[in-house]
Amino acid sequence: MGTLLLRTDLGPVSLLAPDTAPRHVRATYGHLWQWTGDGSDLFSLSVAARETRLGTATGARHHLNHELTQLRPGPEPGSDTLRETHVGVFVEGAAASAADQFGEVRGNLVHQRVVVTTDGELMHVVRILVPDDEAGAELVERVTRSLRVRPWSLTA
Questions:
Q1: Per the domain annotation, does 156 fall within a domain?
Q2: Beta-bridge mates of residue 47
Q3: pTM for the whole thing?
Q4: Which of 8, 105, 120, 123 has minimal CB crowding within 10 Å?
Q5: Is residue 155 part of a domain?
């Protein structure tokens, strides 16, 4: 049985997310929401929203490259390897840029999608980590298609 996903409104972003309360961290410049799955079709889902000066489609693309660089394994011998593919996505209410990473991490074949969006004021980063199989791919697509962004104040 797959992870039950329900429409979840986080304020700046709404999306399909697990039917459990997320871990929520509020920081000086933004918010982070995170869910942990059981590994059957979801390892983790996280959504971050923060103030940005990169409020354009080009800014979202540049920040996506930064996110991908942080996720790449280090240069140590025998380190895990990932391959990347940029993905065309449409996110209602925002300019978006996305990429998929596939590979082996700690002995697990994984598929991770990173979606970076901006509405001009806030930058949103969504990371979905799933097993690299049919169930994981379906979950990634469902969550990505469900993303909606709306204007929101971090102080709200």
A1: no
A2: 33, 126
A3: 0.86
A4: 120
A5: no
